[in-house]
Amino acid sequence: MNQPASHKAATDRSLSHPRHWPSWLLVSLGWWLAGLPWWLQMRLGARLGRMARGVVRSRARVAAVNLALCYPERSQAERDALLRKHFEYVGQGALETVFCWWGRQPAVDALAEIEGLHHLEDAAMRGRGIILLSAHTTALELGVRMARPYMESLGYQTTAMYKPPHDPVIDHVMRARRETHIGGATIADNDIAGLMAALRRGEAVWYAADQKAGKRVSVTVDFFGQPARTHVAISRVAKMTRATVVPFFTLRRADGRGYRLIVKPPLTDFPSGDEATDAQRINHIIEDVVNEDPAQYFWLHQRFKRKKFDPYKRRSKARS
After folding, report:
1. Does the structure show a pLDDT above 90 at 45?
2. How many structural domains compose the chain?
3. Is residue 249, in this structure, part of any structural domain at all?
4. How many CB atoms lie under 10 A from the CB of residue 156?
5. What DSSP element (H or E) covers 151?
6. Does 10 reside within a domain?
7. What is the C-alpha to C-alpha distance for residues 172 and 162, in angstroms, rounded to an integer?
């Protein structure tokens, strides 16, 4: 197993300041946990998730609201079971992240099972950059690492868009470990120029397009039957770079013994010239994957909040 990134960062005075020591302690804990057997990590992660549900009650409530909006046909008992399982997956996702960052490559490879590799081969034949269209499933971080050998076999260097965390230590370690195991330099979520440059160089870039976007880069279309502000950046970037868009998702196997890397056919007639049509098409692709196991989707964000509609706002009880 690789040494923790904290060793490399010790020469950086700003990151070695005592105020960052708690963050380095957390990083060291993650490095240690990554050395445990994967099955034990998953058992610990599920327990961590169950504990977290009682601690981050506001997030649990957001997830419950999202499940009620997206699955109104399910009973309350069914949605409660989904919520419990979702938090177990979130806890496991935290352990999967450290396993992704510091786990041994043979151990990572042994857990991966790819579906639809021929779709990647078809995309590679086009000889252009590839946008790996994804969504925030709880095992996404590990899935990105698992895909690298397949992409390299097709001659592609991979990289990913990411939202820089506020903690500079976590940001430093995240970028260092991702760039070690994914391949190319990570691209900040607001660095559209960097994204376009990577695609024009013929690289493959992971892009999760399922979180709420600002007005300038979004349209409002349905997501699970609810109006949701949806990114249009993929349409714009694909048009400017002529990149091929390939849906590529990560889900845990139903038997709990590894992960499915799900590759769907490259999008044809994309972009269509109508950003709303493209955004709706992407949302439908994501919905189909999420419906395979809804508990694995990341339900903790306020995706459906919009002007004059806030389903996450607590309602005051009517006075008697």
Report:
1. yes
2. 1
3. yes
4. 23
5. helix 140-153
6. no
7. 13
